[in-house]
Design the sequence.
């Protein structure tokens, strides 16, 4: 009787090994496919986010160009305080680390730029804002 259970175990062993082989092969294939699709998805998200940041910075730079041109034409176009804020915004925009997307301070810098822009437009009594940006960071996460 001791022989029979051992024979049953030997009989099932190739089936178990075949199942394990299929499992390992499926795992490897799935892992490699996931790696490839994850890289592509990451590239697409990075491209989208990079474009959005560049577009927003371009908006602020365009406003700066107009304001600095107005200042060159006539110093009295804006108050001293507004001119100082425009200079500070120009410094913030030019110091934004475009080539360092993994810099942990990029979000803080962008928030400072947005805040300084709001200060300037409020001082000028102008309702001007970048409309391409979602209203909240929660929407940014949901878009991803």
Sequence:
């Amino acid at each position: 009787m001791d022989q029979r259970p051992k024979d049953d175990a030997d009989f099932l062993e190739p089936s178990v090994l075949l199942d394990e082989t299929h499992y390992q092969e499926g795992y490897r294939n799935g892992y490699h496919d996931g790696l490839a699709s994850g890289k592509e998805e990451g590239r697409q998200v990075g491209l989208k986010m990079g474009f959005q940041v560049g577009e927003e910075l371009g908006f602020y730079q365009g406003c700066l160009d107009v304001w600095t041109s107005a200042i060159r034409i006539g110093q009295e176009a804006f108050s001293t305080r507004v001119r100082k804020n425009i200079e500070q915004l120009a410094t913030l925009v030019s110091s934004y680390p475009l080539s360092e997307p993994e810099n942990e301070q990029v979000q803080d810098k962008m928030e400072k730029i947005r805040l300084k822009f709001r200060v300037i437009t409020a001082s000028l009594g102008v309702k001007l804002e970048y409309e391409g940006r979602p209203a909240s960071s929660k929407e940014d996460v949901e878009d991803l």
About this structure: The two ends are 63 Å apart (CA to CA). The mean pLDDT is 82. Residues 85 and 120 are 6 Å apart (CA to CA). The longest helix spans residues 3-73.
